[in-house]
């Protein structure tokens, strides 16, 4: 999951759209050489599970056609309840000893049969025997083989080769680190509000210290507006982002949106409370926000007010060059929804 390889296209398979990004090195950073996005039919992916494989494969195929890239190798990612990410503490051991024992150690930390998952790990702190430390910190990642097979299957069906399967939360971190100076002392919340889920990765300096996926997202707003005003999906989508809607009063729409936002903030509060209960420090310095759901009218301001934290948009094209004239969409919307795909496109051979 942490592996990177050459000649990859980042493919973010979301429940609302498939996003394709290909990057090439450009000086000290990168530039976008291919970009494409295509909507995924509603209910084709539900709670991260692919229901309509043929429909999702077709959306991926069209996204690649729109991007105009011939690159076959793909880096994709997973999230949700079929993916477990845990920071664990183990007795200090050599790399070889850890490789031999990791599956046995993992059984104590994951709620699945270890035979049903693919495992990967990253040593965060190997310990320091000279300082009297006898334990090591390891980031453990487990993903259900069944879910990996579903996603790699639709990628293959779309005519591409799945080379890397990563985790959404880590793709966020890749994009963040490629575009911002990382303060080694800062604790930053990376938050991706997608259509059906919110990915949260809390990073301390350059290390992920806590991740969680929340099963609520931008679709909750759309559905609430549809129910309240009996309008189409398209009208509700426009209304939730402050674009108005035919026959809808802006104040009435905002009232519905605020009610959903309150529920979303409660779920985020639970995440922060759990982080603070398990981390060495309760400190949080800022939130870097992205995802289509982050564009909901009033959400960013409500997030900052509720948690008394500065909230900034996470722009994956702050340093990575994108020619906005070639993408045929509003630059801010594209930036908000492309972070995971950019993070995946940054994968390279030999990195972890």
Word description of this protein:
With 352 residues, this protein is α/β, with parallel strands linked by helices. Among the domains are: 83-143, Dna Ligase, domain 1 (2-Layer Sandwich), CATH 3.30.1490; 181-313, ATPase, nucleotide binding domain (Nucleotidyltransferase, domain 5, 2-Layer Sandwich). The chain has 10 helices and 15 strands. The protein has helices at residues 53-67, 95-106, 145-157, 168-179, 218-229, 233-240, 250-278, 299-307, 331-337, 339-345, and strands spanning 9-13, 17-26, 29-39, 45-46, 49-50, 73-78, 83-91, 117-125, 135-144, 161-167, 187-193, 198-204, 207-214, 286-290, 311-313. Strands 3-2-1-6-10 form a 5-stranded mixed beta sheet, with helices on both faces. Strand 12 (198-204) and strand 13 form a beta hairpin. The longest helix has 29 residues, at 250-278. It is globular. The N and C termini lie close together (9 Å). The model has no long low-confidence stretch (mean pLDDT 91).
Summarize this structure as a short list of keywords or feature phrases.
Dna Ligase, domain 1, Nucleotidyltransferase, domain 5, alpha/beta, globular, 352 residues
Task: Summarize the entry for a quick read.
The protein has 352 residues and is of the alpha/beta class. It has helices at 53-67, 95-106, 145-157, 168-179, 218-229, 233-240, 250-278, 299-307, 331-337, 339-345, and strands at 9-13, 17-26, 29-39, 45-46, 49-50, 73-78, 83-91, 117-125, 135-144, 161-167, 187-193, 198-204, 207-214, 286-290, 311-313.
């Amino acid at each position: 999951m942490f592996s990177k390889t050459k000649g990859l296209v980042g493919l973010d398979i979301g429940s609302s759209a498939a996003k394709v990004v290909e990057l090439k090195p450009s000086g000290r950073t990168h530039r976008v050489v291919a970009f494409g996005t295509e909507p995924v039919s509603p209910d084709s992916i539900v709670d991260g599970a692919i229901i309509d494989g043929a429909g999702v494969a077709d959306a991926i195929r069209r996204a690649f056609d729109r991007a105009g890239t011939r690159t076959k190798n793909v880096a994709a990612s997973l999230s949700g309840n079929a993916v477990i990410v845990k920071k664990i503490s183990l007795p200090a051991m050599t790399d070889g000893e850890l490789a031999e024992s990791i599956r046995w150690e993992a059984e104590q930390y994951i709620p699945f049969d270890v035979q049903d998952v693919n495992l990967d790990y990253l040593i965060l702190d190997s310990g320091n025997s000279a300082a009297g430390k006898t334990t090591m910190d390891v980031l453990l990642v487990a993903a259900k083989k069944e879910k990996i097979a579903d996603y790699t299957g639709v990628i293959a069906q779309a005519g591409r080769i799945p080379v890397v399967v990563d985790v959404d939360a880590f793709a966020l971190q890749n994009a963040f680190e490629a575009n911002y100076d990382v303060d080694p002392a800062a604790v930053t919340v990376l938050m991706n509000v997608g259509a059906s889920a919110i990915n949260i990765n809390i990073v301390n300096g350059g290390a992920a210290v806590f991740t969680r996926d929340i099963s609520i997202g931008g679709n909750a707003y759309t559905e609430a507006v549809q129910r309240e005003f009996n309008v189409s999906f398209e009208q509700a989508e426009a209304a939730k982002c402050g674009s108005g809607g035919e026959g809808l009063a802006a104040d009435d729409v905002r009232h519905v949106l605020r009610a959903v936002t309150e529920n979303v903030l409660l779920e985020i509060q639970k995440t922060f409370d759990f982080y603070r209960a398990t981390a060495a420090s309760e400190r949080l310095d800022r939130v870097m926000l992205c995802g289509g759901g982050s564009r909901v009218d009033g959400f960013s301001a409500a997030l900052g007010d509720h948690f008394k934290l500065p909230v900034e948009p996470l722009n994956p094209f702050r340093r990575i060059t994108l020619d906005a004239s070639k993408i045929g969409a509003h630059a801010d919307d594209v930036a908000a929804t492309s972070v995971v795909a950019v993070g995946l496109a940054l994968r390279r051979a030999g990195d972890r």
